[in-house]
Amino acid sequence: MRKFVAAVGIALLAVFGSQLAFSQGAPPSEASRKAELDAAWQAAGHAGTAGPADISLIDQATLKIPTGDFFVPKAEGARIMRALGNVVHDATFVGLVLGSRQNDQWLVVIKYIKEGYIKDDAAKDWNADDLLKNLKEGADESNKDRLARGFPEMEVIGWIEPPKYDDVSHRLVWSVLAKDKGAPDDARKDVNYNTYALGREGYFSLNLLSDATRIATDKSAAHELLANLAYQSGKRYEDFSASTDRIAEYGLLALVGGVAAKKLGLLAVLLAFVLKFAKAIIFGLAVAGAGVTKFFRRKPRDDSAGGAA
User: Fold this and answer.
1) Sign of the Cα pseudo-torsion (170, 172, 100, 216, in order)
2) Do the strands 107-113 and 229-231 form a parallel or antiparallel pair, or are they unpaired?
3) CA distance 297 to 308
4) Segment holding 109, helix H or strand E
5) From residue 213, how far is each of 39, 210, 267 by CA, in Å?
6) Strand-pair partners of 55
7) 89-141 tens-digit pLDDT
8) Which stretches of the chain are DSSP H helices?
9) In the beta sheet, which residues pair with residue 159?
10) Buried b vs exposed e over 102-126: b needs ≥16 C-beta within 10 Å?
11) Residue 158 in contact with residue 132, Cβ under 8 Å?
């Protein structure tokens, strides 16, 4: 396994080394970045859980991890993301889920945003064209920040899946296609497939990272995980009490760009995340081939039993 971990780290750094460090001050050396990425994968393999398994998501919910998926908890998942040069918000980040089957090249980022109860009454009045226009304008605005931080500008092309909200399960799904501004039409297009599960005190975001050529197949993994998330009794959307509970400053519409994106910087983070994280990790998984299956199917090591990893 050490050989596999090292191989993934080397592959990622060899191809994406220039993208892995956007921090302030002097960047770390290539050797130190490789070493940290290797260590992050190693830690994830030891701490993670292979499905089928029930995973507690903080004090809010349980997520059923199906066979073939692998859950990486908060500390180790955050370490992987940081090793790839990403900013991680500890207050919202919960963990990662990776597909470990032979051809899987996707990853789901799980966050919990405790902003209060999200009103969903606006869903019935949604207009997909207006929402797409709003997202495009938001992307143009976020490009100022992206340029300042060294990222290429992005443009939103159109819907992969227009917003769909189920007012019975209180689940939201939407996704747009985006690319580097000025890139040719046949250039690789990375995808954030966004799913949300609303609760009494906030919402879970399960963001699947894939690309345009694979999303038609990969999105089934996001739908399965979304359906497998169950809030605890007392934390469910229907447990809301108007007399005691806090209501979020924005409604459901804001989760498709709009007010929440501008207020919280979600759109800028969203698009930056695709470029900086998805390309690196998905490429690494593809290069590793069958090796990644073995790595992420292994169960956490029992240190008491001894033996090399």
Assistant:
1) positive
2) unpaired
3) 17
4) strand 107-113
5) 31, 8, 22
6) 63
7) 889 999 999 998 888 888 899 999 999 999 998 887 888 888 888 888 777 77
8) 2-16, 30-47, 74-83, 128-148, 215-227, 258-264, 266-273, 279-288, 290-297
9) 176
10) eebbbbbbbbbbebbbbebeebeeb
11) yes
Place of tokens 């033996």: 307
Position 23 pLDDT exceeds 80:
no
The two three-digit tokens of residue 80, written as one number: 């992987």
Total count of residues recorded for the chain: 309
The answer to whether 71 and 97 have CB atoms below 8 angstroms apart is: yes
Burial class (CB in 10 A: 0-12, 13-18, 19+), 243: exposed
pLDDT band with cut points at 50, 70 and 90 for residue 238 = very high
DSSP, collapsed to helix, strand or coil, labels residue 71 as strand
Give the tens place of pLDDT for each residue, 187-203: 878 788 999 999 999 99
pLDDT value of residue 276: 40
Range 227-247 average pLDDT = 98
Paired with 288 in beta bridges are none
Residue type for position 296:
F
Tokens representing 287? 């290069």
Which tokens hold the place of 29?
């050396």
| Residue 172 structure tokens | 């939201």
Closest among 226, 163, 225, 223 to 198, alpha carbons compared: 226
pLDDT exceeds cutoff 80 at 36? yes
CB 194 within 8 A of CB 261: no
SS3 call for 166: strand
Please give the structure tokens belonging to residue 59: 């004090």
pTM: 0.75
Q: How far apart are CA 95 and CA 112, in angstroms?
A: 10
pLDDT value of position 257: 64
